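Hey,
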Amino acid sequence: MYTYALTADKNVVLRSDGATISANYRNRDYVAYLNWLAAGNVATPAVLQAGVSAAPTPAPTSTLTVTAPTTAAPTVSLSHIPPLEQAKISKAAEINKACQSAILGGFQSDALGDAYTYPAQMTDQINLNTKVNAALAAMSSPIWAPGAAHKFGETIVPPTQQVFTCTKGGVSSSNPQNWSVELGATVDDGTCNWQIWITHFWCKNAQGVWALNVHTAPQIRQVGLAAAAALNFATWKNNTLQMEIQAATDVESVQCITWGS
């Protein structure tokens, strides 16, 4: 998260990454700074050169008024912001929060055949990303070949395009195998044994029951695609509503904008 510092120019704020932000309510970076202040944060006071006093210039009504008590940290007053701009700042923060809630609230995927709801808290997103990457790596495994030597834990992709894991090392048969098996079933391939590659992930069925369900490599990849689609839609919707907020010309129009609209 960025932090901010005041500068000698009351119309310019310095962001922690070195960017200078002008006090313009149409500037999304400036709006982000105001949201940061509204959350209870305090900007670092301006640093003056040695021997130079700050000029006591009055603050214009379109900028922030900063006071620096001698016994406490500087306080920031938003009272001089025009009502329309105050409404936009408040609504922008509301829509951002709604977007975050929508993303973290989960998403649906029919990778298992029926529609299941998947969690999307930060830990869930990390776990899903790890499992999808593992599935993609497994799906890029070598294709099955007759008479090949295999070790325990190796993965292959037979003609069915399903991923199999070696559960007993050995040498594969010289004859084609029947790879159309159920989950948990073993394919006896020469002196090798194979089972379908699986991973587990929490999801909720239509009856509201959460369970750690089995997913094959193609299935967990499909879940990952659904997660990406849900994230892309939420961020697109947030961006669209934020542009509507900035384009509004009166307070009533701003207040009519909601996440559900």
